[in-house]
What does this fold into?
Amino acid sequence: MSDYKFEGWLGNDKESAEGNMVWGEFEPKKWEDDDVDIQITHSGICGSDLHTLRSGWGPTPYPCVVGHEIVGVAVRVGDKAEGNIKVGDLVGVGAQADSCMNRKPEQQECNACKTNHESYCINGMVNTYGGFHKNGDKSYGGYATHHRAKSHFVVPVPKGLKPEYAAPLLCGGITVYSPLRAWGCGPGKKVGIVGVGGLGHFAVLFAKALGADEVVGISRREAKRDEAIKLGCTDYIATADEKGWAKKNANRFDLIISTVSSADMPMQQYLSTLAFDGTLVQVGAPEEPIPISPFPLILGRRRLAGSAIGSPKEIAEMFQLCVDKDIHPWVELRPMEDANKAIVDLEKGLPRFRYVLTNKENGEPLRKVNSPSQHRL
Ligand code: NAP
Ligand code: ZN
It folds into this structure.
């Protein structure tokens, strides 16, 4: 039994996305012996939180507590928990709560889970929030005091990685790290990052860390140029402000990661900036379809691909890379109480580049584990 309540910011309808979430208690999933309870210290704010709060991808099962970049201290660990997690450990949970793990003989065999690609589970992945666990209970996310998670999807935060960095890495970071690795980002590669927001800024940091020759920020406006260069971009393209940008950059990139969250984007032109045999990986998830003509694909033998978050194994690998290469995400800390204001600010495109909510009351035990740091790192 636990002596804590699960409380968080409840989205009760579509209007909650406009800064109208309401603080209240919620019932976590029923406890199972491979679960872990986490006292949340940090919770990143992802673009997906807005899509979900406004039912942009389809009806959200309200009430919904969003947040799938969760870091905190393990306060209860089930007897059958995986991964040697102990009470008091600093741990994280990303956007996935469960998958079939290829364990149910009555289900179709799942090559994805069998090969540690759980986010592509063919029997249905369970989202950290706005979804339903295998036992039928609703899943609730991290804009909250506590989170209950399946231990398989709980990743230890290594010593040397600040919790405010670990949190947004759990979704924003892994969603771009995974395709950069899968499509061979490294020396000799010219990489374009479309949309220099939360995910996009991580993509710039990782493409640099992996040794790409060129890492070019492709954003709409000139306004972010200086910050993008400071972040590590070797060049910058402002698509809404630079006439003829697509022609000027035609056939330039081996790999493009597009994090654009709206269907209102010049996909044809993005594709035309790919070199022969190049690949554009779309990770941004607009609410409307993106119209494309096949010609830029046909003429350059180019590819259009997609990618969904990443596995717990890849998250652990990415965490270690951040420690080894001393990668500093740009995060801005916001108190949990200000979550409504923070989501409105995200919609306006204000973060540079990721907001992370912090729970003051839950911060104390953490100080012994890892020292929190300042804004704008
Ligand atoms: P974000 O911080 O708001 O960044 C999104 C970026 O998209 C903005 O910074 C902006 O870049 C660009 N953008 C927005 N509207 C645009 C438009 N009309 N035309 C062109 N560019 C536009 O959000 P985020 O947290 O990075 O999330 C980005 C997207 O990824 C969301 O759709 C989210 O749901 C999705 N996502 C997908 C996965 C996955 O597994 N595939 C995981 C996490 C998130 P500029 O201002 O630089 O132009
Ligand atoms: Zn996310």
